[in-house]
Design goal:
It is built from 10 helices and 5 strands. It has about 210 residues and is α/β, with parallel strands linked by helices.
């Protein structure tokens, strides 16, 4: 890819934005007030704002391999805390995607070096849901289901944080689990039972 193309694209993009309003960038420079925190996979096909039809200023984004919410990952935890405590987002989305290379890699019996501890968290999801997953014969369907279950478990991981528990009490923040189907472009709401999970795990994970 010629990187010059990127700068040409940027010029076109600026022109388009200014057509919509002369003060577009003046307004953008004033600050951000997004309502949504999106945690997705780094996969180049899953483009966050683009697939949701949202623009600059509308969504706070964090992406990593296989959209993981790991309690000792300072990066994702800083993003969650900043978005919830300071930007006061009202919704957090964990968005996985079918055909996720990270999820597939996690299930291979290979030493992947520094990726091992990261992907190990996905093996843990498999272990928790082993009976359901082992009952699925079709390999692709099994991976797709693991993608969905991984999203659910990362939503549960969000509920375990003090920031989300506090924001739920104070303003009823909501956690959503979605999957992007790369084969059709569709965004699927897994309709996770956020309040049900919250009630169910608070006995153990209550933090105040
Ligand atoms: Co992925």
């Amino acid at each position: 890819m010629e990187l010059d193309r990127v700068f040409e694209n940027n010029k076109t993009w600026i022109t388009k934005k200014l057509e919509a309003g002369d003060d577009y960038f003046e307004q953008l420079g004033k600050g951000q007030n997004p309502e949504l925190l999106y945690i997705g996979c780094s996969d180049s096909r899953v483009t966050a704002e683009d697939l949701m039809g949202l623009g600059p200023g509308e969504v706070f984004v964090h992406r990593n391999i296989a959209n993981m919410v790991i309690s000792i990952d300072l990066n994702v935890m800083s993003v969650v805390n900043y978005a919830v405590d300071h930007l006061k987002v009202n919704h957090i989305v964990v968005c996985g995607h079918y055909a996720c290379g990270g999820v597939k890699a996690a299930m291979q019996s290979a030493d992947l070096g520094i990726l091992n501890p990261w992907l190990r968290n996905i093996r843990d999801v498999y272990r928790i849901h082993r009976d359901e997953l082992n009952a699925i014969e079709d390999e692709d369907k099994k991976y797709d289901r693991l993608v969905e279950l991984n999203v659910k478990e990362q939503c549960v991981n969000l509920i375990k944080t003090a920031a989300v528990q506090k924001a739920y009490r104070e303003r009823g923040i909501k956690v959503h689990g979605w999957v992007f189907d790369v084969h059709t472009g569709k965004l699927i709401d897994l309709k996770i039972d956020f309040e049900g999970y919250l009630k169910n795990i608070m006995e153990i994970y209550h933090l105040d």
